[in-house]
Design brief:
Length: 260
């Protein structure tokens, strides 16, 4: 009688774990879509600013999230199939995939956090030099477009302030045609509007574009890190549930074999 009760109890636990894992995998699949979406959003939303950064860590973090999100969606679907079929070999493969994706997303989260710490210093050292030396120079069209977009989107002028432009290669050249700042500094862009640098005509923001871009990137990095580490922790729960389910199936197989 006790043995029968124990068998029924084990079956009940197995069924509960099976449905719990199925629900988890469905949520896991949806989470993969969110992770991939965050990665794509990070690159698409103001992605042109990446050319203004000295390192590629920001872009790498986003690409890792996209990769992980794609793997999560595929793995979540395979996990549902493995749970329904109750095959230990498939479940073991699924378990290994969970651990692999966990490591990938953890790396993305750690990269985002490390880069977040170094972001301010990188922008101070690199952005000013890029704007002063490369703006409107031959072969630097992508940087020129990124700077123009940056100043218009964030309503700022210069790396620290509008006076920074006075030392730039562009403003000192004949090409500037007596402009004091690029036209993209103007509140309303018209041809050669940069000749007049009065606050009524151009953006005067305390801290300049460095402060604005730093805040923008910091917000994105926090989201990347939070999503990466959050989903990674969720996967640990899935890995534990999968391991328990594999163990119960193994026990059932052993009992069936001993009875035979």
């Amino acid at each position: 009688m006790g043995s029968l009760y124990k068998d029924e109890q084990d079956d009940w636990i197995t069924v509960c774990l099976k449905y719990l894992l199925f629900v988890f995998n469905f949520l896991f699949w949806m989470g993969g879509g969110v992770v991939m979406g965050v990665g794509i959003w990070t690159l698409v939303d103001k992605g042109e600013y990446l050319s203004l950064l000295a390192s590629s860590t920001f872009a790498v973090s986003a690409y890792i999230l996209i990769l992980a999100g794609g793997l999560v969606m595929v793995t979540g679907f395979l996990g549902c199939c493995a749970v329904i079929r109750e095959q230990r070999s498939c479940l073991s493969t699924y378990f290994s995939c969970l651990l692999l994706i966990f490591l990938i997303e953890l790396v993305a989260g750690v990269l985002a956090y490390v880069y977040y710490q170094a972001l301010s210093e990188e922008l101070k050292q690199h952005l000013s030099k890029t704007m002063m030396e490369n703006y409107a120079q031959p072969g630097k069209e992508s940087i020129t477009q990124s700077v123009d977009r940056l100043q218009q989107d964030f309503k700022c002028c210069g790396s620290n302030n509008s006076f920074d432009w006075a030392q730039s290669v562009y403003i000192k050249s004949m090409v500037a045609e007596k402009r004091l700042v690029p036209d993209s500094c103007c509140k309303t862009i018209t041809p050669k509007c940069g000749i007049r640098d009065h606050p009524s005509n151009i953006y005067k923001v305390e801290g300049g574009c460095i402060t604005k871009l730093e805040q923008f990137l910091a917000d994105h990095l926090l989201i990347i890190g939070a999503v990466g580490i959050g989903v990674a922790c969720l996967q640990l729960v899935g890995a534990v549930l999968t391991a328990c389910f594999i163990y119960l199936l193994y026990k059932e197989e052993e009992e069936d074999f001993s009875e035979a």
